Amino acid sequence: xxxxxxxxxxxxxPRLYETDGVVDCxxxxxxxxxxxxxxxxxxxxxxxxxxxxxxxxxxxxEMAEWGYFTLSELDNININGVEVDCDLFWSPKKFSxxxxx
Length: 101
Known about the structure:
The protein is mainly beta. It has helices at residues 7-11, 71-76; strands at 29-30, 32-36, 39-46, 51-58, 65-70, 78-79, 82-83, 85-86, 93-94. The strands form 3 sheets. It has a 5-stranded antiparallel sheet with strand order 5-4-3-2-8. The model has no long low-confidence stretch (mean pLDDT 95).
């Protein structure tokens, strides 16, 4: 993985289920963004070990959905030498502020 998030960055994410009080998903704060090609993973919560909760768009916005994904899965993606990247310039923002294409 390019630009793998540091332990400090991961420790700052809300833990799993911590944002359950934010009932409307558009109001959830996306803390991290991972990407490769037209695929995007937006992390909202982290279990402190490997599992994120967030929004995943695998290059098809109509099939994109909220769910769980793991850091180890992202770390193991390698397509002809290209790896998933963690967006170093990402600023936390409400999900509703993200343009899903």
